[in-house]
Specification:
CATH topology of one domain: endopeptidase fold (from Nostoc punctiforme)
CATH architecture of one domain: Alpha-Beta Complex
CATH class of one domain: Alpha Beta
Structural class: alpha+beta
Shape: rod-shaped
Number of helices: 6
Number of strands: 8
Oligomer: single chain
Helix content: 40-55%
Length: 266
């Protein structure tokens, strides 16, 4: 036996044809698989990729800013509403003030007009009294028949101030009169409330003789209780009355139209 018969040879054993063929087939299969995988990867690469975006998580600072913005918006809305309410209140107040001003102006105008009329009447009466006093003091007739004093002087001053006014049936002034309307208004100046018509005025007070007349006595024409005309005796043989449409309020002597009788109320 050879000494080397049990020593393995270091030479590579020869592969049989079948082994080589099998390995070639495996390799071919692997290459085919790689080719298929590569093609699939290329196809997949051509398809669109859908990505999912994740919203950022609110941080503490961002949350505070959002809260501040919301608060600022609410405050602005509240300020707008408050301003609107103030504007509406101001408009209503202005309207009310305008109404009150118009009312105050109307009232002031009425009061001013009333005060003006009252002042004019006082001034007229004062002037008439001065004129009457001067005329009376210069008269040469007896004191009992020509000088009016007190209430009588005021009545005479009033009727003389109306001389020249028109005669109108039913007139009670201030610029037109009938006979009894003038008497009633004249005596009202001194607080005497005469009846409205001449018939009743002819019986109001005390009947006096025409020979004993005093300034301020009421003269009447016709019988007492059915008189058709009245006037006031002003002294010095004169009377003033609303005579007729042609003469109006005039001063006449007793001889112009002698009266029937007289009554004294002062």
């Amino acid at each position: 036996m050879s000494l080397t018969a049990h020593i393995r040879s270091h030479r590579k054993p020869r592969r049989s044809a079948s082994t080589i063929a099998m390995r070639a087939g495996v390799a071919s299969g692997v290459l085919g698989t790689l080719a298929v995988a590569t093609a699939a990867g290329s196809a997949n690469a051509a398809e669109p990729v859908t990505q999912t975006l994740e919203l950022p998580v609110l941080t503490g600072d961002l949350a505070a800013q959002v809260a501040q913005s919301a608060q600022a918006t609410q405050q602005a809305a509240a300020n707008y509403q408050l301003q609107a309410e103030r504007d509406a209140a101001a408009a209503a107040a202005a309207k009310e003030a305008k109404k009150d001003l118009a009312h105050a102006k109307a009232e002031a105008k009425k009061k001013a007009e009333a005060a003006r009329k009252a002042a004019a009447e006082r001034a007229t009466r004062a002037a008439e009294r001065t004129t009457l006093t001067t005329a009376s003091s210069s008269s040469s007739d007896s004191t009992s028949s020509s000088t009016a004093t007190g209430s009588a002087a005021a009545v005479i001053a009033f009727v003389k101030a109306q001389i020249g006014d028109a005669y109108v049936s039913g007139g009670t002034g201030p610029n037109s009169w009938d006979c009894s309307g003038l008497m009633q208004t004249a005596f009202k100046q001194v607080g005497v409330d005469l009846p409205r018509v001449s018939q009743d005025q002819s019986t109001f007070g005390t009947q006096v003789s025409l020979d004993n007349l005093l300034p301020g006595d009421i003269l009447y024409w016709g019988s007492a209780g059915s008189a058709y005309h009245v006037a006031v005796y002003v002294g010095d043989g004169m009377f003033v009355g609303a005579q007729n449409p042609s003469t109006g309020v005039a001063e006449k002597p007793l001889s112009y139209d002698p009266p029937t009788g007289a009554v004294r109320v002062l």
